[in-house]
Amino acid sequence: MNFNFDFVRRRKWWYALSLLIIIPGLIAMVLNWPSPLNFGIDFTGGNIIQVQFDQPVTASQVREVLGGLNLGNSSIQAAGNNEFLIRTTEINEEQTDQVISALRDKLGQLDLKRNEKVGATIGRELTIKGIEAMAIAWVLMVIYITIRFEFLSGLAAILALIHDVLVTVGLFAIFRWEVDSTFVAAILTIIGYSINDTIVIFDRIRENLRLRRKETIEELVNRSINQTLTRSINTVLTVIIALLALMLLGGETTRTFALAMLIGTISGAYSSIFTASPIWIELRIFSRERHRQAASKAATKAKTRKATSH
């Protein structure tokens, strides 16, 4: 299928659309500081309760019991045959006894295998390691794209990735969706997906530059995006279908990961088409203007020195 959309000429509209999501997200994070996101117990600490029932029990049944104790947002993970790992907000010993009693009364006899409090240290370390991993990935991506294409392409790609991260984090901040340890994994996965889509488009731009006809750089970029549009649409739709299935059928344990991935995948496809290449054009124009001004200043200084010497 051949497309002929003019993406580049309307690039300021695409920038504005991105800012309509990013700016409210940043404002939400500032207003909720020092808790810019709704951090789960993986980051804030809490209690871990591991129980094994003598009879078949489902996670939804366990969640229903916890909901009656205002602990419905707890993380519930199957850990074996009728065995569950329950992560709650920090509760005292009396509240823990109430949880165990409620589970035993409504779901039958159980064996308490583990009951301990955990701090937020692991969550902080996970956040720091995640940020470090993201920074290292961005640096390596810039180096790789600079070698394969040019530095401006690498810079444009990283700005598009920052766009995807800010969109995903911003929506989680606005709607106060709970963030757990899988959110960090989702962000890193989004970066990998988005950069792959962007590189495909940049690769086509490079090929078209070699065969450049009598067309402007804007026309060439438009042609390149349109040539890869079918591939981009097919890829993102395939991923979205899988993520929707994971969100609907995967249960509470994978819901945060699937939601973050869904937002990031859509944002990544959008930024690859509407953001990365237009930003590359802006950087290219800015770079050429800087070189032109530098050359003009150098020529002016040369004329001045020549006139002074005479």
Order of helices and strands: HEHEHEEHEHHEHHH
Uncertain parts: none
Q: What fraction of residues sit in β-strands? A: 5-15%
* CATH-derived architecture of the largest domain: Up-down Bundle
| Domains (count) | 2
User: Which outline best applies?
Assistant: elongated
What does the main sheet amount to?
4 strands, antiparallel
Computed over alpha carbons, the radius of gyration is: 26 Å
CATH superfamily of the largest domain: Multidrug efflux transporter AcrB transmembrane domain
Intertermini distance: 67 Å
Name of the CATH class of the largest domain: Mainly Alpha
CATH topology of the largest domain: Multidrug efflux transporter AcrB transmembrane fold
| Count of helical stretches | 9
Your description of this structure?
The protein has helices spanning 11-31, 41-44, 59-67, 93-107, 121-148, 151-175, 181-210, 217-249, 252-309, and strands at 38-39, 46-53, 75-80, 83-88, 110-118, 178-179. The chain is of the alpha+beta class and 310 residues long. It has 2 domains: 11-35 and 122-292, Up-down Bundle (Multidrug efflux transporter AcrB transmembrane fold); 46-118, Alpha-Beta Plaits (2-Layer Sandwich), CATH 3.30.70. It has a 4-stranded antiparallel β-sheet. The longest helix is centred in the last third of the chain and has 58 residues, at 252-309.
